Amino acid sequence: MSVLFITGGTGFIGKEVVKQLAEGRERLLLLVRSAEKASAMLQRMGLGEDTRITLLQGDLSEPGLGLRSDDRELACTADVIIHAGGTMSITLDPAAAKQTFLEGARHVAELAADIQRTKGLRHFIHIVGYMSPFHDGNVDMETDVFQWDGFMKKEGPYERMKFLSDLYIRQQAKVHEYPLSVVNPCTLVGAKPAGTTEQTGGLGILVEALRRKMMPVIPGGTSHWLPIVANDDLARIIAYLARDAAPGGCTYNILGEKGREPRIRELLTLIARELRVPAPRLSVPVSLLRTVMKAGGSRLTGIPAESLSFITDRSFRTVETNELLERMGEAPLNTSDILPMAIADLDYRLTYPNRKEPEGYVKERKGDLAVLVKEGCGIPWVLVHGMLSGADDLVPLAGQLHERTGNPVWIVDLPGFGRSPSLRQGDALQGNVEALCRAIADHPGPIRLAGHSFGAVLAAKAAAALQDKVQQLYLLQPVLHSPRNRMRRWHSTSIEWSRFLLQRLNTASLTRMLLREEGAMERSELPDGYVEAVIQGLSSPRIAAANAAMLHMVHHHLPALSPTALPSVPTTILWGAKDKVYKMTKLFRHDPRVNVIPYGHQFPVFQSQETAQLLIELGSSTE
């Protein structure tokens, strides 16, 4: 059993590397600052009980890595070192950057030298970055990296110190004669197929700038690009190198071929389309933009001048990487399929910066939608939200269903809502139904499908298209008619006008509207944080546009939903009698599938316990 010592194992790259390596037989020693936080992370990853993973509490920037003597002895048993430690903050001040990267490199290299002297180090793998100027042929052994003040003077301290640490470790590998592989990743997005991107400092800088309308120009010309790779592709390469029994040592630039990747104009157009904002059209030289940013533009726009360093017109050597991928049996690097998912995920994180991931749920990709999944046994409940909602708003209902039945639960984010990419061009109603159908089709067996509000209309349409898949259909306060209110129709005349008005809602006006429409009397009757979360969500042009499109469909293009039009699957309709906007239509008043309850329109969100109980009881009676 090989022993691997890993720095940065709790970071964006490191977590995925640990996940890949945990599938093998190696023993993993993780250098962590907080054993408690790292242990909680491993629990969330499903690796909390893995006895092959040992946490060594220390600090990369401290002498001896801040390890206790017994932990240091354990670290010296490593056959392979994977050095992925260091912050991803590109705006580090010079002192912090030197301490993190250059001093960190010194301390890891000392451990490598100790191992090489006592037992031999099989492999050192250093994760650097694709803009590093160093390679296997330009290691100057006379250069003292700790005194080289003139290096890359025009760049920020993050870049300078990261690349000097690259040179230092290359020098140390030559002195002590152990194999060194330098892995140079480009800008990273989350793992395939879901593109979950926790690190918002890379591509997220462009997403944030466009959503705030702070990027009116395109950095660079027609040949400029921002190379992007998925972190699971990177992790697979690192894991493969770590398992190489006889590594030769090499530099691997981890990025796609320039000729096959989108140029910066195409990338910004894609981001703008996903966010539903205008794309910039005018190109400006990167050097001019850097000057503007350093002169105060960064404070105005929120775009660090350092981030422009990653937009380049260069081509990079990828021969070694492509040969390695071929040996691994992997396809060439490409992220086109997950970029929309990653952009939506980043927009979600920037919209809700303080929202924690719901405990016990994993974001998965189903079709082209993001779905929160909680595992269980039996037939899954698939929940579809309505207007002014998202998957997170149905977590309490999903939790109740899971607790009472033990069944798996899926909570879908419809296109443009929550973590899901926006719809492509085409009919909005049909596009939503088709996206929901593709998500459901991902599951091999039957499901229980429950939709709320307009989500109930979409669920009914999807169930009609996939009748063999849907064991039971639940329609929770389905929208059976357009609201008979001239002001509401005027508010939703067009998607653009509706979005404009939605983004000007405030907590007071939304609270008044909900109390009026729900037939409620007190603010305390609304769930804590719901109103604030809705207002927060509408700050995203993507989520606001998705809500506006849904409101426009309800008020101007509502599909007929009559008893005879419902699919021929067991169906239960729950209708809240306190709803002040929508009424039970004449066609449904005597339908035996309708169950009237004393709640308002948002009862699946506001009365989750009661809703779960009704779904289970009524579902059992129709089986």
Automatic annotation (TrEMBL):
It comes from the Bacteria. Keywords: Hydrolase. GO terms for molecular function: hydrolase activity. The keyword Hydrolase applies. Residues 6-238 form the Thioester reductase (TE) domain. PANTHER family: NAD(P)-BINDING DOMAIN-CONTAINING PROTEIN-RELATED (PTHR48079:SF6), PROTEIN YEEZ (PTHR48079). This is Alpha/beta fold hydrolase. It comes from Paenibacillus profundus. The lineage of its organism: Bacteria, Bacillati, Bacillota, Bacilli, Bacillales.
